[in-house]
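Worked Example 4.2. Consider the chain below.
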Amino acid sequence: MEDAERGANATLSIDLEAQEIHGPDGGCIKFDVEPFRKHCLLNGLDDIGLTLQKETSIQDFEAKRAASQPCCRFNSKGGPSPRCRPFIATG
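Applying the procedure from the previous section yields the following structure tokens:
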């Protein structure tokens, strides 16, 4: 309660790595955070950043797919190749 009475003069420091909140009076409060969320916060990763960590694997997959399924390549205008035929499942 004393911290609340300090108003704007009360400062807290949050140590995410140690999972601790330190108050102006020297008190320490431990807190839990999910390991994956902690990893993302400490490394500045959002959904795009997480995806970019897999960039090499994605490029390898796309290269293999393009080699094994040449009919599914896109033309220079971004549309499908004229040789591309959609897959239609039959019952």
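The beta strands are 13-15, 20-22, 28-30. The mean pLDDT is 82. Compare this with Example 4.1 before moving on.
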